[in-house]
Amino acid sequence: MGAEASCVDGPGGKVIRVIVEPATETVTHLVVEPRHRRGAGRIVPLDLVDATAGGIRLRCTVEEFGRLEAAEETELVDPMVGGMALGGLGAPMGAPAPVQAVVRDVVPLGEEDIQRGDAVHALDGEIGRVEGLRIDPGDHRVSHVLLAEGHLWGRKEVAIPASAVIKVENGIWLNLTKKQVEDLPPTGNG
Question: pLDDT, tens digit, for every residue of 6-26?
Answer without folding.
Answer: 999 988 899 988 998 888 888
